[in-house]
Amino acid sequence: AENMYFFSELALTLNEPEERVAPTDSRLRPDQRLMESGRWDEANVEKQRLEEKQRAVRRRREAEAVEAMEEGKDYEGYLPLWFERKVDAVTGELICVYKGGYWEAKDKQDWSVCPDIF
User: Where are the annotated coiled coils located (predicted)?
Assistant: First the structure.
């Protein structure tokens, strides 16, 4: 633990790669993988690329929302694949509840619904 900044064993293994996960799994982030292999300069370049890709997607969604509004159409925007937002009956807070599909997709290795985020 002393050599690993006093992180617990669990904390040290949370980012370990796992096979057969969704292509959107954060453990597959190319900048993280580069950083963990000590390739800092490449990781920083990759992180910048990923952030710009995310900004471009956000700008496109915002433009689509404006266009839909101008045309008098509804625009749903981004919807999570595996979760849905609901109001907790006890607390009244907005929570995310698993709506199914991930484990079935993992069993079939069918990730066709996943966006290309990396």
Answer: none
Per-residue pLDDT at 13:
86
Burial class (CB in 10 A: 0-12, 13-18, 19+), 81: middle
Q: Is the dihedral of CA 31, 113, 22, 5 positive or negative?
A: positive
Task: Concatenate the DSSP letters of all residues of 50-83 into one string.
Answer: HHHHHHHHHHHHHHHHHHHHHTT--------SSE
Residue 61: how many other CB atoms lie within 10 Å = 13
Predicted TM-score (pTM) of the model is 0.76
Note the pLDDT of residue 3: 67
Low-confidence ranges of the chain (pLDDT < 50): none
Structural domain boundaries in the chain? 1-77, 79-109
| Beta strand spans in 1-118 (E) | 83-87, 94-98
CB neighbour list of residue 44: distance below 8 Å, 6 or more residues apart: 31
Phi then psi for 56, rounded to 5 degrees? -65, -40
